[in-house]
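debug: dumping io for the single-chain case to check the tokenizer round-trip. Nothing else runs in this session.
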Amino acid sequence: MSGQLIRGSTAVYGILGDPVRHSLSPRMHNAAFAALGLDAVYVPFAVPPAHLAMAVAGWRALGVRGGNVTIPHKQAIVPLLDELDDFARLCGAVNTLVRDGDRLVGYNTDGPGLVRSLLEDLDFEPDGRCLFLLGAGGAARGAALALAQRRPACLVLANRTLARAEELRALLCRYDPQLDCRVCPLTPAALADWAPQVDLLLNTSTLGLRGEDCDFLPWALFPPHLRVYDAVYAPQDTPLVARARASGLRACDGLGMLIGQGQLAFTLWTGRDPGNLLRQALA
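debug: decoded output
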């Protein structure tokens, strides 16, 4: 944003989350605004859960044009909005906001962004494969629904709180009653039972966001063709990506998902396709 002139006419976009200090969204969206000559700015808003309703009311009052929603607000923000697109309504989670007159409309571009990144960054097609998801929160919902739409052989949801995983499983099975969707506790024995069958290990939880290790996973039991995708991203490899690569597995972090969902969000806000501008901004 160096040298960027902020005027009274400048359209304001932003990201609501806690934490947001690590977010690369301001960097990539501001670079795209500048490259396309758009009078707009994107800023991070650190909003603790107790202040979310006030923050959304503030966005309305201040005329913020839209933006993104990240951990831990993707589900909690739903009842504070005026409308949801079909995909966000199905998965019950929002990561993109668009102002339409006086209304705030919620979208979910996480799932399509993930599928795009799996294809581009890991050469992985979910159709007919066994998919294992860590986490069952707001980030998992968009990811799980997008993967369910690709007709996997099975979809396994592993979460510390089994009730939350069961809730997500019920949602997915309402969408597709033929889906083979299972719930798995995060215990060594349960993980070991599934490990040899898994084609994709996808982390949608906060694991690694603060540098936590992932030694609890049964690395010796995973098949050599396993792909590992961490929706968390970091300047260096996340603990999950580093451990997977040390085990000889193909892995990547969530930077491609960030870019993919960001491209879709940018087009919703502006009607413009940013092309490779977002990826170039993070190179």
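debug: round-trip ok. The mean pLDDT is 94.
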